[in-house]
């Protein structure tokens, strides 16, 4: 169960469109506060759409999203947020704060693009919805007893920026967090996969490929052997596992036996536990390639491990309540809390996990066709959600050129309105009706227990240096 909405919501029902209906009296929060949040958001929808289009028009790779970060920080400052920039060694990371209540809620903003195809994952919309939700909720922060944060998280695609922000303590005082990801469907708790990213290089010996081939050691042969070994391994891997490769160096000329070759390998699995064993076997394949070709391999972790996501059940229910796109969807999977604890972990099939650590029960959906995200790592540390909301994409999925076009379409404008309202109102409900629950989850002892579990699963503290910014 993932909370998949089978029918698309009619566009005319979107928030902010003529005839839209208030959720005052529907969501579990003071109707007067709900109305003020909706009014603040509705008044600024045109400005938020301009921001999303501006970021979309100037796509930037992770760690160099200077224009997007400037634009987001500027509009948040206009709404009274105090902005701190340059966090965890990342110039494009930021933290914007408003209010001084005892409960701290955070909307995480992503704004990096993909090489060659721009905002084909819709991060221009993720960042805009986070800022819009934060600004709307700030309108009632004092009455609601909230401190509202928008945390700018660079480089989700190429570096795992949230992992470095967690390690730097940026989320240490946050009680709950969330964001929305655009997709080709509405899904409350979409699955994500844990993944490891490995970089392997081989050192061979150059020689003339025709005159003196016996003097060489072909580093590209090592990649060929390793790739065949990985291909044979695939038939023995669990259904959830994916292994994909990209050759990044194959020598300089066809008539020179390559003295060096390199490849990046990404390994994905339903959960961090399954991933550990698969990554070890893939590593054996990579070393075997070097042995067969007589070329010394150098193998390293290129990125921190991304983990599977753990959804906070209560916050997921509150989000569904605040998002009419999920009207009528079966929510039993986030209502029936079960008896298992989060500390027990998930099985190899990525099945249900429950938590009794005070953070609310957590849920990890069964794995299927899924991607990976550093949101997963954050969800091990604090209560977190990342629902998907539907873009009209013509049937294409994320990381396709048509998805980039959809991220600046009329459907994207409606998604921003619906998504920002649902984020703001679900966090209003969590922060007013359920503040005691989340404050209890944020005690030092409970935070430390969650971090210890994450470290044990190598979800945190891997010691992988931050990538150099792309040039």
Automatic annotation (TrEMBL):
Coiled coil: none annotated. GO terms for cellular component: cytoplasm. Residues 202-287 form the Peptidase M20 dimerisation domain. This is Peptidase M20 dimerisation domain-containing protein. Residues 342-371 are annotated as: Disordered. It comes from the Bacteria. GO terms for biological process: folic acid catabolic process. GO terms for molecular function: dipeptidase activity; para-aminobenzoyl-glutamate hydrolase activity.
